[in-house]
Amino acid sequence: MPLPGKSAQIDLPELTADCSRCAALCCVAYPFQADEDFAILKETDHPCPNLSQSCFSCTIHANLNTRGFGGCIAYSCAGAGQRVTEVLFQGETWRDDPDLLPHMTYALRVLRPIHEALLILQEAAALTLPDELRAQLARLSETLAVRDGTSIWDFEEPEVQDALAQVPEFVPRLAPYVVPRG
Fold this sequence. Notes:
This protein has 182 residues and is an all-alpha fold. The protein has one domain. It is built from seven helices and no strands. α4 runs antiparallel to α5 and α5 crosses α7 (158-170). The longest helix is centred in the middle third of the chain and has 24 residues, at 101-124. The protein starts with 25 loop residues before the first helix and ends in a 12-residue tail after the last helix.
């Protein structure tokens, strides 16, 4: 039985990035602006020139900061990349079938904000909350988890997108229950 103010753990997808299980989607999906975060200009849906031609690894990974790619260091897909690659595309990649590239990168751009919201809600689940907020947190988490999602359309369903839109309104309501660390 859950403790007062606590509820059973929601079964969430993996929310930690594992680049070894992804098709380097972040290195393709997002544009770069030549600024303090990225040393080059790169267009959306174009592979980064630092991406290995033979595998999905970065040829300058050990030197990202000194080479001007601090944005890569700061980035995390929160597990969305491997979910897109392994679940939505069943291990197929854009290198195996170039026609998949825009579909895979689009899927990453849809799933990443969902996974980021789930990370926030996962942290919030550790708080001692009144039953009303705990129930809303559980509903949002359950909806965003899309446990049986095997297609991008599962993540674009109105209830999932509505739950995602509710997270920024929900989080400030948690402020009175956050205990400062330290």
